[in-house]
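User: Some background: our group keeps a shared notebook of sequences we're curious about, and every so often someone picks one and asks for a predicted structure to add to the entry. Today it's my turn. The entry only has the sequence so far, pasted here. Could you supply the structure so I can complete it?
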Amino acid sequence: MAETFSFGHLRYQEHLASLELIQNRSIEIIHYLKSDWWRGVLCLYAQSCEFYSLIEDFTIKYHNIEPALITLGEMAKFRPQKERNNINYLLQKYEETDDSFLYGNELDMDYY
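Assistant: Of course. Here's the predicted structure to add to the notebook entry:
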């Protein structure tokens, strides 16, 4: 008998990781939103938890929602339809803000 455990399927590992994220609120989730590797875990997390606050927290910390857009969009697919629509609308508005922030900086730089 082996002295270590291994899980033959990645999805089971993702399931266990998502349970840990749900139960252990001291884990900061927002930096995982930028990582493709964590997308499956976060989609499983999204099946059990609302995540509006992650959108705002990510934007506040990184000043740009773009690195997390794909993951957040995938997570939204696992929420009820009305909530999914609201999340997608919110993501669109944050993305537009990112664009205006970038263009605003370029205009300011051209001025000087």
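Suggested note for the entry: The longest helix spans residues 81-111. The chain is about 65% helix and 0% strand.
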